[in-house]
Give the backbone structure.
Amino acid sequence: MLIALPILVPLVTAVLLQLMPHRPKVLRLVAFSGALAILVASIAILVRVERQGIQVVQIASWPAPFGITLVADLFSSMLVLMVGIIGTAITAHSFSGVDPRREAFGYHALIQVLLMGVAGAFLTGDIFNLYVWFEVMLIASFVLMSLHRTRAQLHAAFTYVGLNLLASAFLLTAIGLLYGQGGTLNMADLARAWPERRTPALDAGIAMLFLTAFGIKAGLFPLFFWLPASYHTPPAAIGALLAGLLTKVGVYAMIRVFTLLFPDPQGGVYALVLALSVTTMVVGLLGAIGQGDFRRALSFNLVGHIGFTTVGLALWTPSALGGSILYVLHHMLVITSLFLVSGVFLRQRRTTSLAALGGLYRRQPFVATLAMIPLFSLAGVPPLSGFVAKLAVIRGVLAAEHYWVAAIGLMVSLLTVLSMARLWEGAFWKASPAAPPVARLSSAMLVPIAALVSLTLGLTIAAGPVFELSVRAAEQLLDRNGYVSAVLAGER
Amino acid sequence: MELMLAVVAGALYATGLYLMLRRRLAQIIVGLGLLANGSNILIFTAAGVTRGNPPVLPVDAAVTAPFADPVPQSLILTAIVIGFGVLAFSLVLAHRVHQSAGSDDIDAIGQRPSGSREATRALH
C-alpha cells in the first residue's frame, strides 16, 4: 500500500485543488502539503526498499501477470524521492513566481497531476501502464506549457506537443509488437518469458522503436532538437519541472526497459546507445557554448549531460551504471535549481538573455552565491557533487576499458566548464549594461533554491553512501532475477 | 486478413509520418491522428487476428482454442481514448497558435518579428 502513495496523494490533492474555492492562499497551502506528503511517502519507500528489498503491490489483488503491478526497487524509489524533493521545491517556488491568472486556471492541480504521472512511470511494473503514465504526464505538461499568451511560447508548446506525441506513437508501436511476440504486458513476466519467444529480426526492430521513443523523451543526440527549442520559453518554475523531471523519466524508462527486456550486453543496440551517448555529450555541449541566452544554454547543457546518464546503460557494468544513477540524481537537483535561478533573472530583469544581464554579483551577492554552487557543480568543479558524479561515471567507464569514451567525457567536462564560465561571466560578473530597478525578491523564490543547493552540497558530503546505494541499485537492475521473482511471487 | 491489415497499418504510418513532416499545422495534426490509428491497427494485427470466436465463454463451456485475445482490444480502447483527448487538445492548441500568429505555417510562426524579448515580456 505504501508504494501506491506517491500516485494516490497527488491524485487526491489535484481533485481537492479543483474542488476548493480558488483563493490563492488556500490553493498554495493545499498544493504544498500535497507535495510535502509525496516527499514523506517517498522517503518511507526508500527506507523500506533499502531495508527489505524490492517491494511489490498488485493492484486490486490480481495476481502478477494478469493485473497491474507496482514495483519499487532501489532505482525507482531513489527517483520517486527526487519527485518528492523537486515537487516540493517547485510548489514552494511557485508561491512567488506564477501570475495569478495562471494560478486560477488550475496551475497547482496540473503540477500535482504531472507529479502523479512521473511517480506512476517510475513505479509501474507493467509496460502498457508505463505508456499510460507517460500520457498522463505529457498531457499535464502540454497544458502547463500552453497556458501562455505570447507567440514564441505557443510555438514552443506546439513543437513540444508534436514531437512528444510522435514519441508516444513509437512507444505504442513497440509495445504492440512486443505484446504480439511475448503475449504479456507485465515487465517481469516479459523478462522471464520473452527472450525465448522472440525472433531476432523483430527483436532488433522493437529495440530500435523503444530507443527512438525514449530517446526523444530523454533528448538523445539525433532526437533532441525539440528540447532547446521549447524549454526556454515557459515560466521558470514550469521550465525547471520539465527540465528536472521529465527528461529523466525518458532516461529511467530506457534503463528499465533495456535492462529487463534486452539482457544481451553484446547486442548491437548497446553499441548504438554508447555511440549516441557520446555524440549527445559532444553535440549538446558544443551547442551550449554558442548560446547567448541563460536558459537556452542550460537546455543544451541538459541535453549534453543526458549522455553521461545513458553511458552506464551501454556499458552494462554495476560501477558504470551506478555512476550514471548517481549522475541522474545530481543532475536533477542541479538543473532544477539553475532553472529556478533563471526565475530570479526574469523577476529582476524580465529577460534571461546574457547580453541584458550582468552585475548581479555586485548587487545580489546572496543570489550569486546560490547560483554559483549549482553552476560550478554542473561544470564538475571539485569538491561539488558534479565532480563526484562525473568521477563515478568515468571510473566506471575506465573499469569497462572504454578509454576513448572516458577521454571524450573528460573533454566534454572541459566544454561544460567553458559554458558555465560564460554563464557566470555574462549573468553575474560583467558590468550591468543598464541600471535597471531592482525588484525585491520574496523569500518564497529563494528558499527553494537554497534548499536544493544545500541538497547538492549534501550529495557531496554523503557521496560515499549515496554512490554505494547507486551501485546496489545498478546491481539490482543488472540482475533481473531478483526483480522477476519479487514480482511473480506476489505480494510480500 | 493479416496481410490486408498490415498493408493498411503501413499505409497509415506512411501517410501519418509524411504529413507530420509538412509545415502546415492542420496537416501535422491530421498526421498525428493517422499515426495513432496506424499503431492501433498494428497492435490489433500483431497480437493475432481470430475470426468468430469471442473471448466471452459461457460458464460451463469447454474452452476451444483459438479464441480472440481480449487484451489487445482493451489496449486499443485505451489508446483510442488517450489519442482522442490528445488530438482534441492539439486542435485547440493549433487554433490558438493560428489566432496569435495569423498563419498556419510552422516556419512563419517560428520567426519572431519583435525578437526574443517578446518571449519573456508576458511571463509574470
Observations:
- The interface with chain A takes residues 16, 20, 25, 28, 32, 35-36, 38-39, 42-43, 45-48, 71-72, 75, 78-79, 82, 85-86, 89-90, 93-94, 96-97, 100-101, 106, 109-110, 112, 116-124 of chain B (CB under 8 Å).
- Confidence is low (pLDDT under 50) at residues 114-124 of chain B.
- The radius of gyration of chain B is 21 Å.
